[in-house]
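Table 4 source record.
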Amino acid sequence: MRAPPRSPRAAAGPIPIPVELAGVTRFVASSDVRYVEAQGDYARLHTAEGSHLVRIPLSVLEEKWADAGFVRIHRSYLVSLPLVTELRLGIALSVVGAPFFLWLLLRMRRGLA
């Protein structure tokens, strides 16, 4: 049996986002982003090295990065499922709610993340 064809976006690899710091523009790959936090009309990309504020609405990143494994867990947050290593009930339930927490846990256990 053949694997299902991948979408063109998924086949292209990590999607870079330009970020500016002190007049220098560099590119942050979607694969380096752990989670994204909405801040008004902006989004803050959180990576292992720090965070970057970009002028891109969370809804746009949600659509662009869906194939890269990002899911919206709250109206203000996107999370990279491939980078999730653990879930804690106390924190997750207060942020995402029990139904989503259970869905996420099942999805990760089945290897769909």
